[in-house]
Amino acid sequence: MAFSAFASAAPAQEPAPKRRSKIALLLLAPGVLYLVIFFLVPLFTLVTTALQAPTASGDIGQYVPGFEIGNYATVLAQYSPQILRSFGYSLVATVFALLFSYPLAYFIAVKVRHRPLLQNLLLVLVIAPFFISFLLRTMAWKSMLSDESFLVSALKGLSLMAPDAHITGTPFSVIFGLTYNFIPFMTLPLYAVLERLDTRYLEAGSDLYARPFTTFRTITLPLSAPGIISGVLLTFIPAAGDYVNASRQFLGGTGTTMIGNVIDSNFFDLQNYPAAAALSIILMSAILVLVIVYILLSVYVWKTGTEGLL
Amino acid sequence: MTRSMPQDPMIQRLIQQARQAPITRRNILQGAGIGAAALTLAACSTGGSTKPTPAKDKSASVKALNWANWAAYLDEDDKGNYPTLVEFEKQTGIKVKYDVAVDDNNTYYGKVKGQLALGQDIGADVVCLTDWMVGRLIRLGYTQEFDKSKIPNAKNLTPTLQNPDFDPGRKQSLPWQGGFAGICWNKEKLPNGLKSVDDLWDKSLKGRVGVLSEMRDTMGLIMMQNGVDISSKWGDKEFDNAIEVFKKQVSDGQIRNIKGNAYLEDLKSEDTLAAICWSGDITVINAEAGNKWEFAIPTAGGTLWNDNFIIPVGSSEKANAEKLIDYYYEPEVAAQVAAWVNYITPVVGAKEAMQKIDPALADNQLIFPNEETLAKTKIFRSLTGAEESKYGAAFQAVLLGS
């Protein structure tokens, strides 16, 4: 649209293509420069760091440029439980986020469509947590879930929890934190597609004697698929690399560390930069592969009408 | 699969142009050249193991100083001023910027290490860091040597601290404050108290014990419980034995959490009822959150650590920094600081000066430990670079649950 507006404003006769190409290049330059400086150069540094070798003295944090491809094997062997755990946790958190977000987004986008004031209010409530720092909110949950908190005491009082059981430091609390923190990233894209849902299709469905579930399965779900796809990507990708929720300072413990925590520890505590860099590259590549497979599946196998993603 | 061309004429033309600019060999070579240049840059920024050269001293002309230190580590009044520092500025005319920039030895080191390796300014002319980190900085040549004639008050340094193995003769470091790592517990929930590190592993405390993420304190206490003298020359066997104990308590769920300064939050929220902790902190949280906790040096012994002044290699204010260090080695000033921070002052004569400020504090074993108390504590020996890597990795592996 922007392009056609631009074209129509241009003079009717064709200007020399060469000159236009220069303008296009000039317009592209800031973006390209930005990408080179802030993406390509750091990426090169990351790749080279991952291949560094320790100095002869083996002193902490001292590395020389090298070609230690074995760094990858070492970190994979040592940290594969944490890598798998990261993807497991973020997958579960994404599924929960979807289960909670879908009805919510549907309610806001469809059910209260004719009451704009309420609709806007509800949307603000979805975004409201962003007004407070992510860390503070996670910290607040930590104290709400701590052993002497009202919640845990009540659960123990009702014998719903063993006396020596905990909530913080367990996989439950980490997945809970991930789900809670990333839910808006799922709700908003879902809202965006459901808001455009034409309810006349739903009426047509019921006119044709489809049960509500069939209507949902054959009409609402396919029409909202692009929102589900982008919501899943927006939730899964940051959740897999997250290191706050699983951190020992927040909701995690020693048994719930994710790859982000391993990178943090290797970088800051052990000054093992090659290991941290290799793990970052593994994380990036794994996410990239998973995302590509997911998009291919959604476009060619599930036929969700999300070709725009390719 | 053929895709229909977008109808927009502008886009169609852009696509045409793109097709007319195929990838040529020269393009690829250019790209590779840029890549290689980036690689070289990256290599330069991280490589090099030669020691940096100290910056030129400009103290004579520039009367300013940046001091990086830990939180709650300098006397502060209600208005947020630092009385002893204000006095120093008045006496010397040197403007000091006091920056609470150190939250953790490792994190701070991670932040400034690049500049240190290149001998550049790190935004601080004097920094207080813990023994082992100071040892590392000295080993790597990241500090400047003091001109002791400019620090006459250094003669007030406690004799026992004059020759640490990481800096014999205190040529490049001088202690700021020190403290003990020991055990502490919630007096209300555990009225009988704890005596040794083994008491932390009691079944009744399962899942309610916290330990420090500072390796030398946690491992130091466990090793001492195992009967190892941590200040003498021990080796892999002693360390591995202690790591086994630690690993077992973590995997059994006896140890609830392993943290740095944030362990105090767990004590307050009662997630942990007993912990390995730092002496000065317990005084502080007792004052803050009710007199609920007690600290003790375990029967098998506690660790003694110091945070030390150092002048980073890139500082151009060496003489000013030396004046500051000298000032804080005056017993009266040291006493004033100790009365506020509640840690051990390394300055001889501060105890006598403290008698005038607050006689009760002068008898506090955690601020002015006597021979008997000091005999119960040991300093964790300096590790070589390779040991630091190896033991650090073993300790972190337990923290990461692998």
UniProtKB/TrEMBL annotation, chain A:
It is found in: Cell membrane. SUPFAM superfamilies: MetI-like. Residues 83-294 form the ABC transmembrane type-1 domain. It is a multi-pass membrane protein. One of its GO terms (biological process) is transmembrane transport. The keyword Electron transport does not apply. PANTHER family: INNER MEMBRANE ABC TRANSPORTER PERMEASE PROTEIN YDCU-RELATED, INNER MEMBRANE ABC TRANSPORTER PERMEASE PROTEIN YDCU-RELATED-RELATED. This is ABC transporter permease. The lineage of its organism: Bacteria, Bacillati, Actinomycetota, Actinomycetes, Micrococcales.
